[in-house]
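Figure S4 source data
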Amino acid sequence: MEEQKILTGKAQWLVFKRLLHYLVPHKKMVFLALGLLALTVLGDVLGPLIIKTFIDDYLTPGTFPQGPVIGLALGYLFIQVSNVIISYFQLLKFQEAALKIIQQLRIDVFTKVQNLGMRYFDKTPAGSMVSRVTNDTEAIKEMFVSVLIGFIQSAFLIVGVYIAMFFLNVQLALMTLVLLPLLFGIMYFYRKYSSVFYQDLRERLGQLNAKLSESIQGMGMIQAFGQEKRLQDEFNEINDKHWAAGRRNIKLDGLLLRPAIDIVYAIALIMLLSYFGVMSFSNTVEVGVIYAFVTYVDRFFEPIGQVMQRLSIFQQAIVAASRVFALLDEEDLAPRQENKLGTISSGKIEFRDVTFSYDGKTDVLKNISFTAEPGQTVALVGHTGSGKSSIINLLMRFYEFTEGDILIDGKSVKSYSSNELRSKMGLVLQDPFLFYGTIDSNIRLHNRSMTDQDVRLAAEFVQADRFIEQLPDAYSQAVTERGSTFSSGQRQLVAFARTMATDPKILVLDEATANIDTETEVAIQTSLEKMRRGRTTIAIAHRLSTIQDAELIIVLHHGEIVERGTHQQLLSKRGLYHKMYLLQNGIVE
């Protein structure tokens, strides 16, 4: 579980500035929207002045000259209609800019996820990452769509209203400035405490997503072992904490948002009416001025109230953005390649004194050294946790190593580009992963240079065509998420075809026949022999019967090579390999 970090005021400001940088590519659209916004604010300010002129100059004296009165009426109507039209285009431009920003932000986040190293995925729940890409970016979108637009509009309107108030009565306008410190104080306390509560709320939401993701992916095991009640209790516990965090937010909103602003608004009205009441004892007070001031005070507090209401969304967005930026700033990237000029030709592999640790404390590989000549098969055997998969992880560049070196064709594996490594190395895992799509797309993997004939030849090569052509739609048969509608053996055959379609120089097999039934395994052994022919093969094997013909068998124990040789050589040594062989074959000495 990720550690929660409370955002300070400075940290929130830095997050906000970083969000504003996403506006730069759309500055023309934003400036156009701001210009239109200024026009609507001008209309909001001029409206009460027209009404004030009508009341004081025509309604109070009781004179209604046709020309001036009609002119005022038409002017007021023109302003209102223009405001509606301009507001539409202003909001449209702001919304377009906001949606483009979120579109780019989601692309940035998804691209970052694709470039993260396996270490990050080892320590981060999948649901938490999904929450950042979906829920958190959606919260940021709300900030751009409603909050930022609302803040700018409110700022324009407040400035416009104050200019109009100073134009009408300087003394009264100065009196209303006294209320600003009180309003800023409310905003300060709300920002200070709401950031803590919203941080907790977003973390709880991430935990909910993580638990939901885990439950869906492991539903088979949950039902098989009767763990439904336990998972429900754990989900309910997280959900209760999410509810409690949400309730704290609501209580804070209910106290410091609309009610607090309404009290300040009431104080402003009392001050305004008291001032005019006192003034009426010694001077004549124009009704139009009273109307204009009351209207302006109302229009001043209306955006203030909107700002306070939107502060809730703003705080959620800042907290969400901090989580997204934390992902974008993650430095645990996939291993980098140093010089991208190397080309793999023959496929010779050499491990030289490689020592590796996942956590930086416990070595899972210790001084591993061996050579796989071009066209040879090197098998890795050993008990669980002996380091077999770690060797493959380093060879495939899933993890970075710092001690020793791994060479391919005499050059460090770090010196090849990612594309060169991936195109010349074929990997088949024990539990193959199929993508949503079709059989064809899973073999082709969207390689546009691969023809339909290439796909079919790859399937025939591993004898996957037998079951594929019996499907209703053959190679166009739909594949659901993770290929759940196919058997383990069928998924493995598709994975074999996918690997052979790229014609790799190096073949990496992680117990590739473990999930295939005996009949199917016998049928594809010939295919496996053809696959290995002319290719350097590194194979992890749990069943020793599948690798007896390997040119080199390496026996691992606690991260070290304890034996090496051919099948017969290792049996004659009567060591660990000999014991494993006897155990698997049920032979008791």
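Figure S5 source data
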Amino acid sequence: MNKDILEDKIKDYIDMEVFKLKDINELINNIPIMICVLNKGKFVYINSYFKSILKYSKYELNKIRFMELVHKDYMDIIENYQKCTGKYSNIKIINKKGQELCLYLYMNKLKIENKEFTLVLAFNAKDFYLQRGKSQTVKTEYCENMFDNKGMELEKIKQKFETEIKKKSDQLINVNKNLILTNNYLTNILKNISEAVIIIDELGNCNSLNNILDKICNNCEDKIEKHFSKLVIEEKNYYINKLLKNKKSFHNVEIIIPNELRDIRCIISGSPIEQEENISKAVIIIRDIKEIRDLVNRFNGYQARFDFEDIITKNKKMLEAIQSAKNIALGEGNVLIYGESGTGKEMFAQAIHNYSNRSEGPFIAVNCGALPRELVGSELFGYAGGAFTGAKKEGNPGKFELASGGTIFLDEIGDMPIEQQVALLRVIQERTVTRIGGSRIIPVNARIICATNKDLFQEVRKGNFREDLYYRLNVMSIRILPLRERREDILELIKYFLRKQKYSEYDSFEKINKDVIDCLVRYDWHGNVRELENIVERILNIIDRENICIEHLPENIYNEVLNNEIIKDNNRKIGFLDESISIHEFVKYKKTKQEEEEINSIIKLIRKHNGNISKIAKDMKISRSTLYRKMKKYKINNI
């Protein structure tokens, strides 16, 4: 149930019951009968009419027992009082001014919530007598006669009073049960929400409503409460000050709470509490900034998707590199990954992250070569509010802050501007960042994995890369082989990309011409695995679910293979270097050669099976209709 709806329901219910209680109280106070309720002889309730007769204040009645007011000649009332028989009795009492009052008294037991009380009803005989113009002298005998006649009326009033008390008592019990149930709802809500909730007032009093503060700050709840009290008393926080003085709500404001071990960073939101008291109060919601950033990272895709099992290879050196990466993942040192573009450096980085103890944390990837030179610092280290034109008012965290508790992957680290390399070196050494335009030091705990396609040592010699930063980053290094150095993986990768594109019918290579396979294996793949994936996707988009032939390949692959390989056929050398054969001529030649082979194959099978079309089609693994179509195309007559 929504918290606001629940609170409104409680308020309406209580207001209704309070109105009912006021209503019956007004009724009782206006009845010209003295009514009181006793508990062990003490007054627990007395109506206004009775108080006006006794002349005692409410405070004085709390100290007086009922029997102390009874005249000494009427002490036999004790027996009636102790037994509460429900009989009527004559009695004389003495008020505060010493006046003696003759009453006709009724006492009976009253049960409310399993507790026993004594109900007392009394009538002033003198007042009743004077109303009828009689003498002021009142005799006990007259009182008895008078009340004998009015006994039935008094009994009815008594029964109505008891019925109303019982009804209201039951209603109060139900209200109490609902309040207990509602309190349990609210308590469970407060216990199970992930945010800490505190109530604070303008005097600096601060009280926590749940135990989430201890989880956020590792048993430092008292310190946080004292810090908020200090902010209020010294008016150090603009938003909290406006909240308490002007009842102005605020949302998602970052706050840093000093602590001995490390500063506690939180996001707070506040709303005023509407009430009749003179002291202004407010409720503040406190969220752990780490949980918010984890949520942001999850929805922004800042998570590693690949594991070592996703790396496809049969190459011995690559398998050794994977094992080395697994060992490296268990440590905390910086990692430098070497490899050409498209070899899968980020896949290795993600696999290291997922294999490490930081796997539950974020994985932030930054391409240093893709960032404008002037924005590298603000992207990596963040900026304070108003640091430069166009900056957000509340500032912006950098990638190192977002990666805290996880891994930051700096791709193409060799392209980082030399002036930003100094700042990166300080982050590595101090494990802190300072936002651009800010002065606050922010601790970060992110493991750094870098990747480059350059020889950083040569870049150091050329003066393009800082030597001290190079040695800081090159704690552990991994080299990933280019695809041309592990050709045994090409076919496995092709099968994987075919399945990925949901073309699994081709991964057996039965519908792929052998020349295509040979060409793909012999090609040097300068774009490595990324280029291979793109070529497979290109082929699949143009084949229209037919056999994949060599003409489906891009021309650049033809050119390179034809320039580097000599195709032998019937002791004739056919190659781009030996003869000026164009790509189209080569394709035409290959197609003609394939048709000649298919014609010879059909003729041989016709002779073998004596023209039995069914057996010929079965041997060729084609249908009868396809065989007829080919025979018609090649103008072959059945013998």
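The two ends are 87 Å apart (CA to CA). Residues 16-20, 130-144, 566-581 have pLDDT under 50 and may be disordered.
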